[in-house]
Amino acid sequence: MSLSLDTAALEAWARTHLPALEGPITATKFSGGQSNPTYRLDTPSGRFVLRRKPPGVLLKSAHAVDREYRVQKALADTDVPVPKMLALCEDDSVIGSTFYVMDHVEGRNFDQPSLPEVDPENRAPLIDAMNRTLVAIHSVDLDATGLTDYGPPGHYCERQTERWTQQYRATATEDIAEMDALIDWLFANMPPDDGQRTLVHGDYRLDNLLFAPDAPRVAAVLDWELSTTGHPYADLAAVIMQWSMPATTEGRGLEGIDRAAHGLWSDQQFIDTYCDRRSIPGIENFHFYLAFTYFRMAAILQGVKKRALDGNASDPDRALKLGAYVPFFAHSGLKAATE
User: Fold this and answer.
1) Which domains can be identified in the chain, with CATH numbers?
2) 42 beta partners
C-alpha cells in the first residue's frame, strides 16, 4: 500500500476547488498517527495540512474524515480552538481517497504527559488549559452549531459499547479472555442514561492538542475522527486513563511519576477542576467510564494491529507496537471495573 500523495493531481484539483493553494506543492507526511494519514503541504502561497482516508478496504464508519471536516467547520466561531477548514473532497478519483485541506496551525505538540520539554513550574498551566478546553468542548451549543444530529440519540455508552464490540470482533486476531470478560461487565453494569448529551471528542489526550508557541493556551484540538454527540464523562475518563499508562515512549503515561514533585496534576485535581468549571457536584460511577475507555482503546488498537497485518496501516511498525497493548488495556479495564 502506498501512502504517497499525488501532488500533481492535488494541484489540478486545487486550481478549481481551492485557488488559494497554489502549486507547486511539496507534501511531507506527519509521523505517528495510526488512522488517517496527514500531510503538511508547503506551497508558494503558504503552508496547509491535508488529511485523508487511508486507501484499501476499511471498516464501515471508520476513518470518517468528512465528519472531522464537518465538526471542525461547525466549531469555527466557538470557544473550541480548531484549524480553519478550507475544502473537502469526497471524489476518490483525485488522490485515491476522500480528503480535506485545512490551515496549518503553528504550535507546540507534546507526546508525553510528563512534559519533559517544559520547566516544572510551567507544566500545571498547560494541564489547566487542557482542562479548560475539554470543558469548552462539552459546553458547545449543539443547536447553534448545527450539530444536534451529529450523533444518534439514545444511551451513548451502551451505543458505543455495542459499536466497539462489533469492531473488535471484526478485527480480532486472537482470543483475549479478559477482553471478553470486560465486555460482559460493561453490558451488565451499564449506568442509566442521565440525560447528559454534549459534543464528545472521543480521543481527548495531550498529544491531540497543539499549544500556542509562547503561552499556556490550546491553539488547536486535532484528530476528531471519533467525535460524536454523547456522554462527556467518556472524554474525561480518557484523560485519566492515559495518565495511568506506563511512563514510556509507547505507553505515554504517568505511572510511577511523583506528580507533585514534577509540577503535574493529580487525577482528582483534574476531575475536581472539570466539575467546578461545569458547575456539577461530582461524578458517580466514574469507574464505569474509566473501564469503558480502556475497553474502547483496546478495540481501537486491535483495529490498528489488524490494519498493520493487512498492510494498510499509516505507520506499520508503530501500529504493531501499539497493537501489542490490547491485552494490557483489557486487563486494566477489568481492573478499573472491579476495584
Assistant:
1) 7-103 (3.30.200.20), 120-338 (3.90.1200.10)
2) 26, 47
